[in-house]
Design goal:
369 residues; 7-stranded mixed sheet; 4-stranded parallel sheet; 9 helices; disordered N terminus
Length: 369
């Protein structure tokens, strides 16, 4: 499958800092999640030339480790579900270990402990891109491949980034969903964004405007862009104002979880279900009610289960020598298909998960985060 690169701002979960307020069993039972590590808190000293190649093929038969930002987070627990599914398929053991809080110092302490245990590979969602560089370098120098996912360690501290989404795809899929909801006759649509200065929101809106120039979207008319400032009350009020200003409005697109939920609630409260539809970027637990009642029949984001699944396949490919972590390397990730390692001037070596995932009434109950 063909993959595209992402701008730097979308490599980390800060991609959705304005968007997010934040399935299989293992081949063998995983160890209990780690919540503490040995007393040392200093990261290993950075080395000038971190290792960039994985060990020789078949060299490692030990454990692999998936490290989230913190434990007890449904988003990361969902990623671990996908990781364990991949582990079962590959016949490997993937441990899920993290600190109790999303703290870089605690994460470094844990990683120091893991490096000493010489796992086959590490897949890390970083709490601090720069602070974890020396730790990532120490792991690579010890022959342990380092994959980052969800939130990246800076390029010099890892072998490979699993990139969850591309800016263009995030914008384009929202227009696609709006078109589906408006139907063949099209109609008026509006955008309810976060803040007027949010770079990711503005980037997606520009993509949406470009998408609307395509012939297949010629019957959609963008009538307004308003801002709820990622405040629930203001977003709700802005949605109500759109109903009044545009009585024939068909769709509200909200590329932020605060806005999409508030707009769906406003549609519900105004008894406009079936007349005005809401779509955008959200999370399953906040949107379940509105998917089921028809206020927001579909919305999108990436699937964290697939992200964890791909991270495991990638670190296994590195650890076994199937790939070296070089541009052009290819590997197959089970049900997700074929992937190619790409090199980007900002992201460095990375693998793109794919297009954002769409939830609707057929799959909304499959996710709990």
């Amino acid at each position: 499958m063909k993959h595209r690169s992402l701008f730097l701002t979308l490599t980390v979960l800060a991609l959705f800092s304005t968007v997010l307020s934040a399935c299989g069993g293992a081949a063998t039972p995983t160890q209990a999640p780690t919540t503490a590590a040995p007393a040392a808190t200093d990261a290993p000293a950075a080395t000038e030339m971190p290792a960039t190649e994985a060990p020789a093929a078949g060299a490692c038969e030990g454990d692999y480790v998936l490290v989230p930002k913190n434990l007890g987070n449904p988003y990361f627990d969902t990623a671990n579900n996908g990781a364990q599914e991949a582990a079962k398929e590959l016949g490997i053991n993937v441990l899920y270990q993290g600190s109790a809080t999303a703290d870089a110092t605690e994460q470094i302490t844990l990683l120091n402990s893991l490096i000493a245990q010489k796992p086959c590979a590490l897949a890390i969602s970083a709490n601090d891109a720069d602070a974890l560089v020396p730790t990532g370098q120490a792991a690579m120098q010890a022959g342990i491949p380092v994959v980052t996912w969800d939130s990246a360690i800076a390029t010099e501290g890892r072998n490979l980034l699993i990139n969850q989404a591309v800016s263009h795809d995030i914008g384009a899929i929202q227009i696609q969903m709006a078109s589906d909801l408006a139907g063949p006759d099209g109609g008026k649509i509006a955008i309810l964004s976060a803040t007027s200065t949010a770079p990711n929101q503005n980037g997606w809106i520009e993509v949406m405007k470009e998408e609307l120039k395509k012939p297949e979207y010629s019957k959609l008319e963008l009538v307004d862009v308003v801002y709820g400032d990622d405040d629930d009350t203001k977003s709700y009020n802005e949605a109500q104002s759109l109903f009044t200003k545009y009585p024939d409005l068909k769709v509200i697109i909200a590329p932020t979880t605060v806005g999409v939920a508030a707009a769906a609630r406003a549609v519900t409260d105004a008894n406009l279900i079936g007349k005005v539809f809401v779509t955008g970027l959200g999370t399953p637990n906040q949107m379940r009610e509105y998917v089921k009642n028809g206020a927001a029949p579909q919305f999108a984001l990436w699937n964290p289960a697939d992200l964890g699944y791909l991270a495991v396949y990638a670190m296994h490919a590195l650890a076994t020598g199937e790939i070296k972590g070089a541009a052009g390397d290819k590997f197959t990730a089970g049900k997700l298909g074929d992937y190619t390692v790409e090199d980007d001037p900002d992201l460095g070596l990375n693998v793109l998960l794919g297009k954002p995932f769409i939830w609707d009434k057929t799959n909304i109950d499959d996710s709990n985060w």
